[in-house]
Structure of Beta-glucosidase:
Amino acid sequence: MPDLPEFPPGFRFGVSTAAYQIEGAVDEGGRGPSIWDTFAHTPGRIRGGDTGDVACDHYHRWESDLDLMARLGAGAYRFSIAWSRVQPTGSGPANAAGLDFYDRLVDGLAARGIDPLVTLFHWDLPQALQDEGGWVNRDTAMRFGEYAELVGERLGDRVKLWITLNEPYIHFALGHVQGIHAPGLTMMSDQLPVAHHLLLAHGLAVSALRRTSGAPVTLANNHSPVWPASDSDEDRMAAAVYDMVQNHLFTDPILLGEYPPGYEFLTTADVDSIIMEGDLEVISQPIQALGVNYYNPSLISAPPAGDPLPFARLEIEGYPKTAFGWPVVPDGLRELLVGLKDRYGDKLPPVWITESGCSWPDLDDQFRIDYIAGDLRAVRAAIDAGVDVRGYCTWSLLDNFEWAEGYEQRFGLVHVDFDTQQRTPRKSFEWYREICTAAARTSP
């Protein structure tokens, strides 16, 4: 057994994936195009011209992939549903073949004793909705609520945890401000409608899932401890703004029922024209968990002259780096979790680590083992400090389509040869298997 601290009985260890990154079969089973299909097929957008057309071919290989999870001993599997596989245009009646696929997947997990943790939106908005304005359009939030109801009606009796949105901050920032993710927009002003409609979609989905399922509901945001580059007033102010946008913009409205101070800079319009009466009541409905995705802290300085953003991110030196070049700072996860507890107190629900992992190419991936071990020690330290953490899902089961990086970055416990689709478990797979199987033996 790896030399790690013990976790409370019932603590769940699992793995995470996302639909566009692994499924492939983009033209099969009635699936409609998503913004990632469009973005990936736009020249110059993805490293190497890669697309998710085939990815890991999970759509056809799901049974053998579930067998891999069973071999791993995973207690939980967090995966996402492709909205355009359920509603090809993002509205209207459900596509039966799409729901049938996820129905088989959930049943396959149950047969193997693995809890399904289902994400409704992992960035792959149906292209038809983007053509009508996407998340700038309030109507998209309404359509999301209807989609959540369709999925809840079909799967709600077996799902163990619902995650409405994955990393709304990243989708907002990289997809709508910086333009390096789909839909590739660079909105340097009037960004608030995107953020608000994502949050409203979450609230409408909570309502729908309450009607159709008894499972707890959450969302999963990418959180990051924020470190000012210096003690100067300028750097500390820039860090405060960054902290507000990444860590509080998509959490305060849900847990506190209000936007964080300073959010108004995200729009030049009248806030009351965006945030309608009753919206915050919908958004702040109680959730039964909080999903936290963690990769690294953020070092923030004041922006250089002429930069349209109110902050600048700097490289963090003095730590090991993943193949992606991200610093490995395990204690940042403890800092983050304790900081959430300090901010929200009794309003903080039980926490799931819904994603954390590192890119490393080798089959003998001791680097990844050390990364996950550092995470788990940090989680145990946060639990000892009073944070109620219920589970940890590492990213990811498989090497996959890593968004704008294509197939360059490899996050999997399992290596995938994308020419042959051969799966080869890495050293980290066998190491993590010991953790998962030991946890299963102590589960109540």
Q: What stands out?
A: Residues 12-442 form a domain with the TIM Barrel fold (CATH 3.20.20.80). The first helix runs from residue 19 to 22. The CA atoms of residues 235 and 301 lie 5 Å apart. DSSP finds 15 helices and 13 strands in the chain.
